[in-house]
Amino acid sequence: MRPRTLDEVVGQGHLLADGTALRTAIESGTPHSMVLFGPPGTGKTTLARLVARAADHAFEELSAVQAGRPEVREVMARAEERRRGGLGTVFFLDEIHRFNKAQQDALLPAVEEGLVVLIGATTENPYFEVNSALLSRVRVYELRALTEDDVEVLLRRALEEGACGHIQVGDDVVAFFSKRSGGDARTALNALEIACETAGRTQARTVSLEDAEDALQKKAVLYDKAGDMHYDYISAWIKSTRGSDPDASLYYLAAMLEGGEDARYIVRRMIILASEDIGNADPQALPIAVAAAAAVEHIGLPEAQFTLAQTAIYLSLAPKSNAAKRAILDARAFVSEHGAAIPPGPLRSAAYPAAKKLGRGQGYDNPQNHPAHVNDQEHMPEGLEGVRFYAPDAAERENAERLERIRRARGR
Q1: Domain holding 291: CATH number?
Q2: Which of 285, 315, 320, 370 is the most exposed place for a label (fewest CB within 10 A)?
Q3: Could you tell me if 277 and 403 lie in one domain?
Q4: Helices (DSSP H) in 85-142: which residue ranges?
């Protein structure tokens, strides 16, 4: 099922779109040395083979896990022999990060003089694992994990090619493999093959979901990102976290992640909860939730699961208060019913020409000029002096005490 042309490659549109450097190099048959960096099963070996085929070069492949300098020297010797005959060589070195510095340095002369087109593949960040001398002579391309839709395309293509023979594979099985393979095409295709073989040995005509679970060694999670499950699980997570139950919070978080829920959706709900249900009972909840959102964007899944778990635990254990929520809802309801009254003249803006002639801003008493930065000037519109919206609850004792002191100092 390995793609034979660029048009058959699924995913990696950011690298293979028309006009990109990598696609142009492949299509023109003028390859350059490179390091392909990305998760397993995203097409690193496939791209290396396509580079060799398009350039009409011989393809040499080694794994740095098993090979050493003697094997590399043999590859270079064969490449030298081919060069004398006018044929180029693409040297694909899988797991290049497993080579130590001396082994990587041994590749430099061949790359520099063009004896081989080196294509290194790694799941580790090459800027940490590959030495700078070699990096300066190659281009680094980052491959991304395939989406569920990408994996489904590959699985359906395999079925159309007769991968399972006469055995039927239902949409539920294809969806299961697509969601649960973690964006790894190799894992999904291998699991499909095993499931079909299992069904064949048992004389079954179809691959069951149980066969699929056994093949992938993962349980099917009943979760529909576009249906009731999407709303039920996030609702359960919110209510468990609001209820200060970290175990239930983590359980529903895990269920959503296992079901393929978008981490950005989850963390948006965390930010909302931080203000709606915790508020000023723990003012750190909001910046922590916002930091979690930034982490999700920067690192993504699967690593962001640790950030989400940390945040879920923090939000669960934080003291709860919905005073901020009640205050803004009450204030909006009041304005909606009574309209928005004009602010007192001293509080209105005097920032534009002639504003002072209209009395705007005159008589404003800046509280910064008073002890404790508090004065007795009225801030509410005329007739609304006694209206109150914010009522700190028991979890906001410090705020309640401070507000009481301020109102007393202001004669309110």
Answers
A1: 1.20.272.10
A2: 370
A3: no
A4: 101-105, 108-112, 126-129, 132-135
Same domain, 123 and 189: no
Q: Is the dihedral of CA 216, 218, 221, 225 positive or negative?
A: negative
Question: Which pLDDT value is given to residue 218?
Answer: 61
- The Cα–Cα gap between 341 and 102 comes to 76
Mean pLDDT by 10 residues, the chain (412 residues): 87 91 91 92 92 94 90 94 94 93 90 94 89 92 90 91 86 86 86 87 81 72 58 89 91 86 92 95 96 92 92 94 93 90 83 71 82 84 86 85 84 75
Range of the domain at 42: 6-142
Length of the chain: 412
Would you state the structure tokens that stand for residue 107, as one six-digit string? 């590749």
Residues 242 and 193 in one domain: no
Identify the residue whose tokens are 């393809």.
59
- Inter-residue contact 308 to 269 (CB < 8 Å): no
For every residue of 127-148, which 3-state class applies, written as one string? HHHCCHHHHCCCEEEECCCCCH
The pair of structure tokens assigned to 50 is: 């396509």
User: Does residue 1 sit within a domain?
Assistant: no
Coil vs helix vs strand at 30: coil
Whether 220 and 176 have beta carbons less than 8 Å apart is answered as yes
